[in-house]
Amino acid sequence: MTQLARALTIAGSDSGGGAGIQADLKTFQELQVYGMTAITAVTAQNTLGVFDVQTLPLASIAKQIDAVVTDIGVHATKTGMLANAEITALVARKVKEHQLFPLVIDPVMVSTSGHLLLDQSAKKQYIEELIPLATVITPNIAEAEALTETSLDHLDARKKAAQSLHALGARSVVIKGGHLEGEEAIDLFYDGKEFCFLRAPRVNTPHTHGTGCTFSAAIAAYLARGVTLAKAVSQAKRFIAAAIAHSLPLGRGHGPTNHWAHRQGGEPDAD
Ligand SMILES: Nc1ncnc2c1ncn2[C@@H]1O[C@H](COP(=O)(O)OP(=O)(O)O)[C@@H](O)[C@H]1O
Ligand SMILES: Cc1ncc(COP(=O)(O)OP(=O)(O)O)c(N)n1
Q1: What is the pTM of this model?
Q2: Closest ligand 2 atom, CA of 81?
């Protein structure tokens, strides 16, 4: 048997199964990557909203990371909901201690339903400690605006924001365009040298819960499989586009994306 690719997600749990740790594990599994978790917070959540958040003690998060890294081994890591400044700083320390690269940072701040998933005070730790470690950071428009303190209502501003995040130390940046308007959902990818666009038809659906988590988990899965960064982001874009095109009308609010939709086109893409 060839070596099984293994990925770790450090993120929050979504009881509704559409975002967070649950979305990440489903994505890893679909992309034939063995998934492991370090849970930062437990949310009571469904398609309508977030009803409770309990963060885990720092020692528990640290031990979850130590346990999987020192025994099973990790080929790629992603971070999602980190909840507060202390957890963000701890995760940055653990990434350095265990050299958890390649590292995909999805700087989760607010849920679709408008619930705050990161204390505002954690921005400092993101900027000073975590972002400098990123192989790729994947903010949506609002997250990129918060991190760069600029308004990103036109393409030039988004390009400058990508350059600013790169200047903070991130090796590459994807500014996601899911919340923009237009016939296509266009993400901006910057690798420190060139810009390129990741494009997919915009799907007119309210069922987009977990899109950012699924996209970043797919990037981590492809990186764990050893594909190049440029290929990982473009294949992840295909994966999330299919998951949204066939999203699931579950619950009474924003339903989740469909993690097995990519199979309808056949087997997972060859590397
Ligand atoms: N309605 C949509 N149709 C097609 N792609 C979408 C749609 N909404 C989001 N996406 C894509 O899903 C991914 C996640 O983007 P986004 O929704 O902006 O992130 P987040 O969930 O973090 O807010 C991006 O690749 C984005 O372009
Ligand atoms: C536990 C947890 N983590 C992250 C999110 C946010 O998910 P994301 O894919 O960024 O976006 P929405 O699902 O909110 O559109 C979450 N809701 N819960």
Answers
A1: 0.96
A2: 3
